[in-house]
Amino acid sequence: MNAAGYVSLPLIGSVTLAGLTQHQAEEHIASMYAQKYLQDPQVSVFIKEFTTQQITLDGAVGKPGIYPIVGEMTLLRALAMAGGPGRIAKATEVKVYRQGQDGARRSRRSTSSGSAPARPTIPSCAATTWWSSCATRPASC
User: Fold this and answer.
1) Average pLDDT, the chain
2) What span, in angstroms and rounded, lies between the C-alpha atoms of 5 and 21?
3) Which own/partner pairs from 67-73 qualify as long-range (CB within 8 Å, at least 24 positions apart)?
4) Residues 68-91 pLDDT 10s
5) Do the Cβ atoms of 105 and 128 come closer than 8 Å?
6) CATH for the 54-136 domain, from 3.30.420, 3.40.30, 3.40.50, 3.10.560
């Protein structure tokens, strides 16, 4: 699989497998072959190696650190992994940063009213910071 989550297969060409489990990938590939080429295809996917994506949770959280992204990572799950907000955290000042392809860190989500979407997901997020106060924000924010 390439970095974009595609695999190239005979007859069906490029197939997206990013985010799928092994079983889901098998079913997806089998359905692609069944559409035009094979009757009842049997597909086995073997995972030779995988890389884990990580998220950095920093700031006023219970347990700041680097955590693996497992499954669908939401902002709520990420904060729960870090032990929730610390005693001095302001829940209305959550910022999510992502590292762009050019390497620059950009703010992608800021909740100033405390009303964030119910399930904001964090795919391949570079860093999530729960700021404790305006005074702790770096000048670049």
Assistant:
1) 74
2) 12
3) 69/122, 69/123, 69/124, 69/125, 72/121, 73/121, 73/122, 73/123, 73/125
4) 887 777 888 888 888 888 888 877
5) no
6) 3.10.560
Pairing of strands 127-130, 54-59: parallel
What are the boundaries of each domain within the chain?
Answer: 1-49, 54-136
The pair of three-digit structure tokens given for residue 45, joined into one six-digit string:
């996917």
Of the candidate ranges 16-30, 102-116, 118-132, the one whose mean pLDDT is the lowest? 118-132
Model confidence pLDDT, tens digit, residues 112-137? 444 444 445 554 443 444 433 333 33
Look up the CATH number of domain 1-49: 3.30.1950.10
80 Cβ contact list (under 8 Å, min separation 6): none
94 within 8 A of 116, measured Cβ to Cβ: yes
Q: What is the CA radius of gyration of the chain?
A: 20
Give the helix/strand (H/E) hosting 36. helix 22-36
